[in-house]
Design goal:
Layout lengths: L14 H10 L20 H9 L25 H15 L1 H14 L5 E9 L5 E8 L4 H13 L12 E9 L1 H11 L1
Antiparallel strand pairs: 1-2, 1-3
Helix pairs in contact: 4-5
Length: 186
């Protein structure tokens, strides 16, 4: 009896499905696998291949057996949420340095305040590639450069899957923060 070899939905093949396909097609048992020709077998290889493509066991009009679908993991890691959490943690660790930059500017101009949006490009290994800032004109160029220099020194977790990651983070600098910090020093 000849057995047909068929591939069950190529897109869903896994190691287990590949073994099933090589062992006799979708859902077929290992008992139906034809014996490989011996080295001393004189039969023509074309005849052997023809025998293997004829499927006598399949009934005409019978539905194909269902394709093997590998089970999916129940929990998928959320790499975006992990990147957002890491960015928040890194920026929180920079707060003391940001306050120092702001205090220097506040000493020169007690009215200095700013709303800044940091646009940070992170490389595949977690190093900062570029920092762009919008806003913060009252801090002046030296105050903005102090903040940008601190962000450039930051290290984030490596980007999942390689590539780059862009983070946008708005921040506000107001004299209330400086007054609270001055009270904490006493």
């Amino acid at each position: 009896m000849a057995v047909s070899f068929s591939v069950c939905s190529i897109g869903a093949l896994t190691a287990g499905a590949l073994v099933m396909s090589l062992a006799g097609g979708c859902g077929r048992s290992l008992e139906k696998v034809p014996k490989a020709p011996e080295a001393d077998d004189e039969r023509d290889l074309v005849a052997i291949e023809e025998e293997m493509t004829v499927d006598e066991a399949a009934e005409p009009g019978a539905p194909d057996p269902p394709a093997y679908t590998p089970p999916r993991p129940k929990v998928y890691p959320d790499y975006y949420a992990a990147a957002v959490k890491n960015a928040g943690d890194v920026f929180r660790s920079m707060r003391p340095d940001f306050r120092e930059c702001y205090k220097e500017k506040l000493a020169a101009n007690p009215e200095a305040h700013a709303s800044i949006v940091f646009n940070v490009l992170i490389g595949p290994m977690g190093a900062v590639r570029s920092v762009e800032m919008t806003g913060g004109a009252l801090l002046g160029d030296d105050g903005r450069e102090c903040l940008a220099a601190r962000v450039r020194k930051a290290t984030f977790t490596p980007v999942h899957g390689g590539g780059t990651l862009r983070i946008k983070l708005p921040m506000e600098f107001r004299a209330v923060l400086a007054a609270r910090d001055a009270g904490a020093d006493r």
